[in-house]
Each structure stands twice: as structure tokens, then as C-alpha cells.
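STRUCTURE:
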């Protein structure tokens, strides 16, 4: 049995069209089996070279003249992200600030388009910062926040929305992939549902960008935000992206009127006038070194291509689920992710009452790095750019070992 499995895994690795991409990442000295790329992606050689060159050649040599090209970075990278990974025509995406700050800006911008509506909606199982930012906005602006009860381990259904929808709903914030279960939501259906009552959709793509194909324009999403340090490997503190539908841009107001969002930044005029396009979502001086790191990192993802990434990711999570059924389910683990391929993103979640202790033991005894999420969840995230099929197998077998000792 074991011999058959390992033979099959050898074949999967041998026929892996993305296998060579492992060599594009800096390996750690202790040989960690890194299954946590959905939290912080690995360092690529290109990201490293790019940030070093930004330090030595640009900051070091160009000094302030660097701004002649640095000012363009936020929108250049936004357009690359848009065309390669988000299904967005140019002029709709910028890279700046954190996902949390971008949520704040997009939610208030959306509200500026529907000023008479008083209700904000969010999945009660969504990532904390998404809920907290909404809670803060509701408190500051005297609005009502409705927390939708959902089944965390399954995609959100149209029926889940029904009890919360009326013509007072301004917007809903939804994560495309749930961070604790990996459930993949259907943005097109959700956009249709919320539009049918005149509300807007703000999608959080933090756990989906670089893992699943995204079609923001075709799906009729109004606004989107997301992290670049997860599957995009931009590094800790890498700035987030923000998408705003072109046809909405000229009518909306975003709440932080920084000089980078002004019509003519270097006129230094007496009063604020917003830039015409997506640039009105910028705020202040961007983190140039991090933007340059992201530029390098993103090149690697684009070279692989989202279709190939998704198909390897599916093969890896499929393998992990088969191994889960054979080796982990008998030890009292529960799969807290959808079994249906079309309903899950790039990571899987295994539940067990001893999840916390197991995740520590996995690292100490096996050099397998996963992450733990309250209350009893282990997130198991192969990253198709640098995780082999053998590492998926080794990760599951290590977990079985710590659970059966
Ligand atoms: C990781 C993540 C964030 C993180 O937001 P930051 O502002 O970068 O800290 C936000 N939302 C979701 C859904 C995430 O998965």
C-alpha cells in the first residue's frame, strides 16, 4: 500500500510542469517542509534581487531622482496584478497601504455612492480585520452592522443572504476564500445577489489571489482588496492591492485625502481635488522597497501562470484529502474544508481537539511548518510554486505520527 502510494507520488513530482519553480526560491538552512505559504509566502531569488537593487542602485545611487519612476510603481504593479491574476482591465487596481486600510477606503468609497443606505453586511466567520473595520465604520457613522450566520466550512449560499437583505443594505464584504476552512465563494453569484437589492460587493481576495483564477470584471464585482504577502510572496509588510470598478471611480469619494490621491500632486494647491482614475485611492508615500520586492515576487507567479498554479494546487489538495481519509480520519481528525474541487481554494483545514499541540510537535520533531487557528484547526497549505507532492505526503504522514504516538 505505502509502496504504491510513494510510487504514485514520485510520478506526480516527475510530471510536475512547475517543478523547476522550486529552484526560484531561497531555501532555508534547516530544510523546513513549509506548508504555511497562505500566511507568508517564501522568499524568491527574484524578490531578493529586486529589493537589493532597490536599496543599492536606486536609493543608494539615484537618491531623490528615484521618484521619477517610483511614483509609477503602485499603478504599474496594479495593472500587472489586474491583467495576470485578477481579471481586471488596466486602470482599476493600485498597490498601496495594508489590506485593512484598503478595506476602510473601499467601504467608505462604496458608501459614498449609496449615501441613503444604512446597513453593512459581513460574514460572521470572516477574517477579524474585515469585521472590525466594518464595526468601526458602523460605530463612527451611525450605521447598522449585520453579521451573517454562515456554515464556515462551506461556500456562502444565496440562502445564507436571504434573511439579511433589504433595500437598506449598502454593501457586503465577503472573502473569496475563507481563511479558516478554504471554502471558495462564488463572487459572480454573490455580486448578482447583492446587486438585486441595490447594494455593492467588496470582495477580499487575500486568501485567493495567486491560488485561484479570479475574474473581477466578468463577475461584476464593485470593489476588491487583498494581501500580497500570502500566495504572491511579496514578503512581510508587502503592500496590499485595491480594485475599484472603472465605471464607479469618477463618482466616488474615498475618505483619506492624501496628496498622492490628488489631481496634480506637485501643484501643491490650496484645496484637495481628487485624481480622476484609480489613483484617487492612493494616500501618501508608498513603501518603495517593498513594492520593488513585490515586483520581483510577482514575476515568478506570472511566469508560472494562474491556470498552471491552480491545476497543481487542485492535484495537491486532492492528494492530501485522499491521504487524510486513509491516515488521519482514523485518528480522529475531521476535514473542515469542502471535498468538492470547485468549492475550495488553495489550503485545507484539519480539525482535531489536540490541534495546537500537534502543530508544535510537527515542527519540533518533523520540521513541518503548518499553522494553527482557533479553536482546533490546523491549516495545511501546499504552495504549488514550491511545495512538492512528496512534501504533501510527508506532511500528512508526520501529522499521523504525532497523533498516534
Ligand atoms: C491576511 C488577511 C488580512 C490581513 O490584513 P492586513 O491589513 O494585511 O493585516 C485581511 N483579510 C483577510 C481575509 C486575510 O486573509
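SEQUENCE:
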Amino acid at each position: 500500500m505505502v509502496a504504491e502510494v510513494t510510487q504514485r507520488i514520485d510520478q506526480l513530482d516527475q510530471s510536475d510542469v512547475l517543478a523547476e519553480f522550486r529552484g526560484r526560491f531561497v531555501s532555508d538552512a534547516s530544510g523546513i517542509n513549509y506548508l504555511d505559504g497562505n500566511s507568508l509566502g517564501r522568499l524568491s531569488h527574484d524578490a531578493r534581487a529586486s529589493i537589493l537593487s532597490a536599496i543599492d542602485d536606486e536609493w543608494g545611487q539615484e537618491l531623490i531622482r528615484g521618484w521619477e519612476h517610483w511614483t509609477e510603481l503602485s499603478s504599474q504593479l496594479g495593472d500587472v496584478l489586474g491583467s495576470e491574476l485578477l481579471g481586471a482591465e488596466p486602470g482599476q487596481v493600485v498597490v498601496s497601504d495594508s489590506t485593512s486600510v484598503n478595506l476602510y477606503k473601499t467601504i467608505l468609497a462604496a458608501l459614498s455612492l449609496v449615501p441613503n443606505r444604512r446597513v453593512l453586511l459581513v460574514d460572521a466567520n470572516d477574517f477579524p480585520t474585515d469585521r472590525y473595520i466594518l464595526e468601526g465604520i458602523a460605530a463612527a457613522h451611525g450605521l447598522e452592522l449585520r453579521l451573517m450566520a454562515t456554515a464556515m466550512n462551506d461556500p456562502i449560499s444565496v440562502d445564507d443572504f436571504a434573511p439579511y437583505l433589504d433595500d437598506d443594505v449598502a454593501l457586503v464584504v465577503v472573502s473569496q476564500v475563507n481563511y479558516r476552512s478554504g471554502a471558495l465563494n462564488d463572487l459572480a453569484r454573490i455580486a448578482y445577489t447583492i446587486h438585486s437589492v441595490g447594494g455593492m460587493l467588496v470582495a477580499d481576495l487575500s486568501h485567493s489571489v495567486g491560488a485561484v483564477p479570479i475574474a473581477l470584471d466578468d463577475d461584476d464585482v464593485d470593489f476588491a482588496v487583498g494581501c500580497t504577502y500570502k500566495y504572491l510572496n511579496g514578503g512581510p509588510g508587502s503592500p496590499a492591492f485595491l480594485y475599484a470598478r472603472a465605471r464607479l471611480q469618477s463618482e466616488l469619494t474615498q475618505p483619506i485625502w492624501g496628496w498622492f490621491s490628488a489631481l496634480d500632486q506637485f501643484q501643491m494647491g490650496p484645496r484637495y481635488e481628487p485624481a480622476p482614475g484609480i489613483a484617487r485611492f492612493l494616500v501618501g508615500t508608498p513603501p518603495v522597497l517593498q513594492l520593488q520586492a513585490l515586483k520581483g515576487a510577482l514575476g515568478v507567479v506570472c511566469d508560472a501562470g494562474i491556470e498552471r498554479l491552480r491545476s497543481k494546487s487542485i492535484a495537491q489538495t486532492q492528494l492530501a484529502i485522499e491521504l487524510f481519509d486513509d491516515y488521519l480520519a482514523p485518528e480522529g481528525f475531521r476535514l473542515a474544508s469542502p471535498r468538492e474541487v470547485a468549492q475550495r481554494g488553495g489550503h485545507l483545514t484539519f480539525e482535531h481537539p489536540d490541534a495546537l499541540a500537534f502543530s508544535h510537535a510537527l515542527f519540533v520533531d518533523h520540521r513541518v511548518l503548518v499553522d494553527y487557528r482557533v479553536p482546533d484547526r490546523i491549516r495545511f497549505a501546499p504552495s504549488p510554486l514550491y511545495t512538492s507532492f512528496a512534501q504533501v505526503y510527508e506532511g500528512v504522514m508526520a501529522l499521523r505520527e504525532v497523533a498516534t504516538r
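REMARK: The chain has 14 helices and 13 strands.
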